[in-house]
Amino acid sequence: MTGMAVTKPRTASSEIARDINRRVVLNLIRSRQPISRADVARFSGLQRSTVSLITEQLIGERWVIQGSTGRLPRGRRPTFLRLNDKRVVVGIDIRPVLTSVALGDVNGRFISQETMATPPDPQTAIDGLTARLQRLLQSHSDMMFEGVGVSLPGRFDFRSQRLVFAPNLKWPDFDLKTPLERASGLEVILENAANACVLAEVWFGQTQDIRDLVVVTVSEGIGTGVFMNGQLARGLNGMAGEFGHVPLEPDGPVCTCGGRGCWEVFASNRAAIRYYLESASQAGGFSFQDLLVLAEQGDLRAAKALDTMAHYLGRGMRMIVAGLAPELIVVVGELTRSWRRFGPVIEAEVAAQVLAGRPPRILPAGEGALARLRGTVALVFQKHFAASVQA
């Protein structure tokens, strides 16, 4: 009994230390590539012999490759290390109207991307996604596939891995994970779209040193992903962050969730289109992109509709600021293309009701159109890197 008590903790501690060191080295290469072994040792604080051993293992496992050599005034020329971009993930971004399927590498670059209309029922969607998955696997047989990441416009039960709340998608409770895994032979990881955007921002954005941020996705509805104290918040039943379905006006229009006056009823793309169509005789098929173009061309009704949307976005963000006090709010969506129009209005609305101190920074996502897909890539790869998603 005494022998077990002494031996097991030592073995476990040794394994844990090796795993931590490996993740530190791998994550340093990811965030600072191309980087020499000497610089990995300097930034990590690990001994050079330890770094050398770990990097040789990573090269042998084809996670890391050696690139160009550097120049020094004297001594041995360093060889730079970088991640192997043959390591790839299939990213699937399901939205109420359009679904995207892409092949992304470990550095967040996309090798291929295609779209399909989102079917009205999940089984048809699974059939279409299965065909595209299998085609990607066959046409890129030289790649090393790590898994499939799926961004969903709603919430799923973390234990059962079934979609349980997606009012804008209008699909019933279903199992997306099992049939995709069966068809591809790869692990499938699901995530809410806003949470996927949090991962994209922390992994591939310029916010690696920020531990408290919220991502607000604005599209057919409004989603929020919460990153607090360096961790993604999920909450009970995976429902943390559903600010889009908090009522701003209890007697307001009916929301897709069944409630009335929810934030997304007033501040989503659909809301802006509704504002415009209430004062214009526009034919069907009118899109939010059409509205942005009209406003840029000087259409006053379009500009007023977008201004109303911006004011409501800012008012809704007051809930986030009062409840979570994030350092940064990142906005994802088509509206970021016209950030000069939206940004000042949103910032003014938030600043008008800050309880104390300065308001958080509010920024548009750098590549909003790809944020969800980048998040699916980070979703799969993160398990191989640092213990948290923070660099």
Draw up the topology in text.
Elements: H1 2-32, E1 35-36, H2 37-44, H3 48-60, E2 64-69, E3 79-83, E4 87-94, E5 98-105, E6 110-117, H4 122-139, E7 144-152, E8 155-157, E9 162-165, E10 174-175, H5 177-184, E11 188-192, H6 193-204, E12 213-218, E13 222-228, E14 231-232, H7 263-267, H8 269-277, H9 288-296, H10 300-324, E15 328-333, H11 339-351, E16 361-364, H12 371-381
What does this structure look like?
It is built from twelve helices and 16 strands. A hairpin with a 4-residue loop joins β5 and β6. It is an alpha/beta fold. Helices cover 41% and strands 22% of the residues. It has three domains: 2-83, Winged helix-like DNA-binding domain superfamily/Winged helix DNA-binding domain (Arc Repressor Mutant, subunit A, Orthogonal Bundle), CATH 1.10.10; 87-199 and 373-378, 2-Layer Sandwich (Nucleotidyltransferase, domain 5); 207-365, Nucleotidyltransferase, domain 5, CATH 3.30.420.40. α1 crosses α2 and α2 (37-44) packs across α3 (48-60). The chain is globular. The longest helix has 31 residues, at 2-32. The strands form four sheets. It has a five-stranded mixed sheet, with helices on both faces. The protein has helices spanning 2-32, 37-44, 48-60, 122-139, 177-184, 193-204, 263-267, 269-277, 288-296, 300-324, 339-351, 371-381, and strands spanning 35-36, 64-69, 79-83, 87-94, 98-105, 110-117, 144-152, 155-157, 162-165, 174-175, 188-192, 213-218, 222-228, 231-232, 328-333, 361-364.
